[in-house]
Amino acid sequence: MQIETTRFGTIEIDEGKSIEFPEGLVGFPDARRFVLLEHAPQSPFHWLQSMDEPDLAFVVVDPLLIDPQYADAVPVEAWNDLGPAGVEPLLLALVTIDRHEGRVTVNLVGPLVIHPETRKGRQLVLDESSYSIQHDIMCSTKSPTQVLSRSS
Amino acid sequence: MLILTRKEGEKITIGDDIVLTILEVKGRKVRVGIDAPPDTVILREELYQRIQEENRRAAASDVEDMERAIDLWSSIGPPQEKTEHAD
Description:
The structure holds two protein chains of two kinds. Chain A is mainly beta.
């Protein structure tokens, strides 16, 4: 099917790949249907484009790339009503890019959890976690060689 | 705003599915227990506001911003990958 988007014009998408957020997102209660769009091959960042509001899209990233232990912070009771048990959720974190400061940060307190079979999701708020709403990607887990090569 | 006065141990019902219990009043703090269906979002209000604000900021991303994120990620270097060495 075709959808309208302000960033990419009219695009063709596979309706079967759509993701539904029955409760919308925090602050966007009516934004229910989304589709994931690749921006560039090999890039960890994707677009989460609203199918109903052409102007609404988010840059998203797999939070496990930032912290491989992140799934431990997501309680299964918070999302196991979205589909059959026994599967790993698809996790996405919303990315904020600050044009003025040039910072790229990831919201690790409000992840999107999606059931891979039903493709239903919701935005959780991890109230008691020690994660940051604005986790700077420059602070990601890095190998020692990378750290050494970056220091001057 | 509906205003009620309750004592410790007393409850308030909201709709058909939500019950708020005043568990303890101690000095300037009130401990509140909430029974609600699991898909009800219940948060400290200031946290909800912060998430909403960050969602709004994230929704302002344009193609240029995506490119910036990709460039910055590349400059960090690839994530550590498990490499399996052939024996």
